[in-house]
């Protein structure tokens, strides 16, 4: 596989992790990782041809957040808290992208 160029900069592919690697790098069992995925607490970003889930590096931040929340909250409360955070983050991304698009349009039209 050839590296991709973007404006003469190499685009290095993101490292993807299988459940077994998450188990190796975290205090969670394979079953817990599976359950958290089914519950929607964490998300796979891709599947292998053999049907294995693959997670990106952001899963470690999410699992760290779950560890912190588990000290005071139930899994149901954690799911709700993370859902609210995800909606807020999504809205911020949409607003940022909209502002960027409007700015680019202004620059193009006035530039």
Could you walk me through the main structural features you see in this protein, from its secondary elements to its overall organization?
- It is a single chain.
- The protein is mainly alpha-helical and 111 residues long.
- It has a single domain, classed as Multidrug-efflux Transporter Regulator, Chain: A, Domain 2 (Orthogonal Bundle), CATH 1.10.1660.10.
- It is built from 4 helices and 4 strands.
- The protein has helices at residues 19-25, 30-39, 58-70, 75-110, and strands at 4-6, 9-11, 46-47, 53-54.
- The strands form 2 sheets. It has a two-stranded antiparallel ribbon. Strands 3-4 form a two-stranded antiparallel ribbon.
- A hairpin with a 2-residue loop joins strand 1 and strand 2 (9-11).
- It starts with a strand and ends with a helix.
- 9% of the residues are buried.
- The model has no long low-confidence stretch (mean pLDDT 86).
The gyration radius over C-alpha positions equals 19 Å
Number of distinct helices: 4
* Name of the top-level CATH class: Mainly Alpha
Tally of extended strands? 4
What is the strand content? 5-15%
- Helix and strand content put the structural class at mainly alpha
What is the CA–CA distance across the termini? 40 Å
Order of helices and strands: EEHHEEHH
* Second-tier CATH architecture: Orthogonal Bundle
Q: Which stretches are low in confidence, meaning pLDDT under 50 for 5 or more residues running?
A: none
Helix content: 55-70%
Q: Major β-sheet, in short?
A: 2 strands, antiparallel
Q: Can you tell me the CATH topology?
A: Multidrug-efflux Transporter Regulator, Chain: A, Domain 2
């Amino acid at each position: 596989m050839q590296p991709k160029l973007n404006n003469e900069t190499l685009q290095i592919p993101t490292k993807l992790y299988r459940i077994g690697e998450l188990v190796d790098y975290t205090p969670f069992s394979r079953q817990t990782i599976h359950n958290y995925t089914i519950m929607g607490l964490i998300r796979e970003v891709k599947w292998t041809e053999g049907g294995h889930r693959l997670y990106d590096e952001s899963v470690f931040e999410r699992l760290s957040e779950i560890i912190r929340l588990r000290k005071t909250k139930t899994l149901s409360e954690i799911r709700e808290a993370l859902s609210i955070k995800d909606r807020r983050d999504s809205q911020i991304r949409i607003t940022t992208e909209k502002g960027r698009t409007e700015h680019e349009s202004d620059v193009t039209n006035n530039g």
